Automatic annotation (TrEMBL):
Any single Gene Ontology cellular-component annotation: cytoplasm
Keywords for the protein's UniProt record, in alphabetical order: Cytoplasm, Elongation factor, Protein biosynthesis
Stated role: Associates with the EF-Tu.GDP complex and induces the exchange of GDP to GTP. It remains bound to the aminoacyl-tRNA.EF-Tu.GTP complex up to the GTP hydrolysis stage on the ribosome.
Stated name of the protein: Elongation factor Ts
Pfam families named among the record's database cross-references: EF-Ts_N, EF_TS
NCBIfam families to which the protein is assigned, alphabetical: tsf
Involved in Mg(2+) ion dislocation from EF-Tu, as annotated region: 79-82
Record localization: Cytoplasm
Main location: cytoplasm
Keyword Protein biosynthesis attached: yes
Recorded GO MF terms: translation elongation factor activity
Domain Translation elongation factor EFTs/EF1B dimerisation, first and last residues per copy: 70-276
């Protein structure tokens, strides 16, 4: 099948591999992006730097608590200028109050919530009309805790990133620091025990292929190979698991060791980064001006 330049660009941004390598990977996998990423990794040509989750849209996130209830949410706009707009910021505050004082589970629930100015959906429509950009509520999560548990929250750069953690046995300071850890180190799971079986199986197959191509491992006993495979899979998930990460305030100590030392634990966490995974609109200013001049004739 024909491989487009857009596909090559997307794969290159995700992996950091060379253009020709990306094109070959896509050709070998019939354009399947996920298989192409695996193909590059198996061939050892994908760079270690992760670019799959780079921010590709604008907006802000928010996190807030009220007693045993917390909410974290993301509102998107088309440009970063809107993030400084007073109406946009006011809308975020109105949403916060509505989410914390009403029962809400999904975005659909949130849109029909009533506020003194109308429903959340009405406010989004009004903001879109007034500001001149599409404003949307992309996602939200409402979390509850027990009286014995603690919330930790952190917003980075005015809401570019927000993090929420639920902890047991922690001080307010430790809970906040854990939220900062989540925001800055972007883990996916609390521990390796939380990684879904299908994700582990997929990574195991990838590592098997990498090992099969390694001449240094030829002729080694099966048990030795099994141990090496297990170690490689575990190492892959270390950066993605909060407990295995280095604690940002004490880099020589893992998060798990720090928490054990202070006799506390993380129950769950949520991290939102504005625009994460969304494709940014590409404006052609010259074409826009030309179109306006043509329309004015």
């Amino acid at each position: 099948m024909a491989i487009s330049a857009k596909q090559v660009k997307e794969l290159r941004e995700k992996t950091g591999a060379g253009m020709m390598d990306c094109k070959k990977a896509l050709t070998e996998t019939d354009g399947d992006m996920a298989k192409a990423v695996d193909w590059l990794r198996e061939k050892g040509k994908a760079k270690a730097e992760k670019k799959a989750n780079r921010v590709a849209a604008e907006g802000l996130t928010r996190v807030a608590t009220n007693g045993n209830k917390a909410v974290i949410y993301e509102v998107n706009s088309e440009t970063d200028f809107v993030a400084k707009n007073e109406q946009f910021l006011s809308l975020l505050d109105t949403m916060k109050d509505a989410f914390l004082t009403n029962d809400v589970v999904t975005v659909e629930d949130a849109l029909v919530l009533e506020t003194p100015q109308g429903t959340i959906n009405d406010l989004l429509v009004d903001a879109t009309a007034t500001i001149g950009e599409k404003i949307t509520l992309r996602r939200l999560a409402v979390v509850t805790k027990t009286d014995e548990q603690q919330f930790g929250t952190y917003m980075h750069n005015g809401g570019a990133i927000s993090a929420l953690v639920v902890m047991e046995g922690a001080t307010d300071e430790i809970a906040k620091n854990m939220a900062m850890q989540v925001a800055s180190m972007r883990p996916t799971y609390v521990s390796q025990a939380d990684v879904p079986a299908e994700v582990v199986e997929h990574e195991t197959e990838v590592q098997k292929q990498i090992m099969a191509a390694d001449p240094k491992l030829e002729g080694k006993p099966e048990k030795v190979l099994e141990g090496i495979l297990k170690g490689k899979v575990s190492k892959h998930f270390q950066d993605e698991c909060l407990m295995d990460q280095e604690y940002f305030l004490e880099p020589k100590k893992k998060v798990s060791a720090f928490l054990k030392e202070h006799k506390c634990s993380v129950v769950e966490f949520i991290r939102y980064q504005a625009g994460e995974g969304l494709e940014k609109r590409e404006d052609d200013f010259a074409a826009e001006v030309a179109a306006q001049m043509a329309a004015a004739k």
